[in-house]
């Protein structure tokens, strides 16, 4: 039965037993004043991580704290989250990457904020996301990408026009304010918002689904809030790199640029003229080829 819990935390695992274990351990270690469940989705791991997780969390699984969902195939991050969302019993849904660590009181602070009566129009909330070296993961507070701010970001051009606002670097990392776009590593979403706008678009395999969801949330009139008074650590890329060579799986590079194409075609094609559209598509293709070659040459 839906909504008999306050919160459903969704973690997707794919061949990352250690990272996933540590992520869930960090959730369980923090005292939480809300009734919650953890939905652990295994995306058809090809190693023994599913069996290890099942054994490691057997007590929590038997007590119903963790609901383990074993997919029969790997059809992507968005689809895995959607399966869990449909089974989730929480009034709020937290998408949490399997390469993150929850810091002290993060869940309680975020829930306290979004459940306030004065914040009933907040459809999604994200927290401060720090990388392993202590720096900010800039993806946690940003504007929606468009041809102009993406161009400035690509070539690291800074202006006083406000058009170079891909990342909102001028906003206080510890502040609280409305923004356009959060990162899917930590995204707390109201169930009624999901009922309003729909699930993640599973056309996106692994990247871009968070930006697309935020775009649709804003279009529907909900507010999106960056809440810098709570924090997680994000071991970004830890689950997708070869630790010896630092090479990335070529499929993931492909999916990264494919996500750009899907998002642009879905939301921007009709907003820009033919020549801008062609330039964007060529630019995405060039970046894809360049980064595939660059990745291949890494030793």
Helical proportion, percent range = 25-40%
Which residue ranges are poorly predicted, with pLDDT under 50 across at least 5 consecutive positions? none
Beta strands, count: 9
Radius of gyration using CA atoms only: 19 Å
How would you name the oligomeric state of the polypeptide chains in this document?
single chain
Task: Report the end-to-end length measured between terminal Cα atoms.
Answer: 52 Å
**Classification by helices and strands:** alpha/beta
Shape: globular
Q: Largest sheet at a glance?
A: 9 strands, mixed
Strand share of the residues? Answer: 15-25%
Return the string of H and E elements: EHEHHEHEEHEHEEHHEHH
Kindly report the average pLDDT value.
94
What is the number of helical segments per DSSP (H or I, 4+ residues)? 10
List descriptors.
single chain; 299 residues; alpha/beta; nine-stranded mixed sheet
Describe what you observe in this structure.
It is a single chain. This protein is an alpha/beta fold and 299 residues long. 38% of the residues lie in helices and 20% in strands. Strands 1, 2, 3, 4, 5, 6, 7, 8 and 9 form a 9-stranded mixed beta sheet that branches. α1 (17-29) links the parallel β1 (5-13) and β2. The model has no long low-confidence stretch (mean pLDDT 94).
């Amino acid at each position: 039965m839906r909504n008999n819990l306050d919160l459903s935390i969704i973690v997707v695992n794919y061949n990352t037993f250690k990272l996933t274990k540590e992520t869930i351990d960090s959730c369980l270690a923090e005292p939480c004043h809300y009734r919650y469940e953890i939905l652990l989705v295994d995306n058809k791991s090809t190693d023994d991580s599913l069996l290890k997780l099942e054994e490691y969390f057997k007590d929590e699984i038997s007590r119903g704290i963790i609901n383990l969902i074993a997919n029969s195939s790997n059809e992507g991050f968005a689809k895995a989250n959607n399966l869990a969302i449909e089974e989730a019993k929480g009034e709020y849904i937290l998408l949490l990457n399997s390469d993150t660590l929850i810091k002290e009181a993060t869940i309680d602070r975020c829930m306290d904020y979004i459940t306030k009566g004065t914040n009933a129009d907040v459809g999604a909330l994200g927290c401060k996301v720090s990388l392993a070296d202590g720096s900010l993961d800039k993806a946690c507070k940003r504007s929606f990408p468009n041809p102009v701010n993406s161009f400035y970001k690509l070539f690291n051009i800074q202006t006083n026009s406000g058009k170079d606002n891909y990342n909102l670097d001028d906003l206080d990392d510890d502040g609280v304010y409305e923004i356009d776009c959060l990162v899917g590593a930590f995204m707390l979403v109201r169930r009624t918002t999901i009922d309003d706008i729909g699930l993640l678009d599973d056309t996106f395999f692994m990247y871009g689904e968070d930006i697309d969801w935020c775009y649709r949330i804003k279009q529907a009139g909900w507010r999106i809030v960056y809440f810098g008074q709570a924090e997680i650590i994000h071991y970004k890329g830890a689950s997708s790199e070869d630790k010896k060579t630092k090479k990335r799986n070529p499929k993931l590079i492909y999916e990264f640029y494919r996500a750009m194409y899907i998002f642009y075609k879905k939301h921007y094609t009709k907003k820009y003229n033919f020549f801008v559209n062609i330039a964007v598509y060529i630019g995405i293709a060039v970046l894809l080829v360049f980064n595939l070659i660059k990745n291949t040459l890494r030793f």
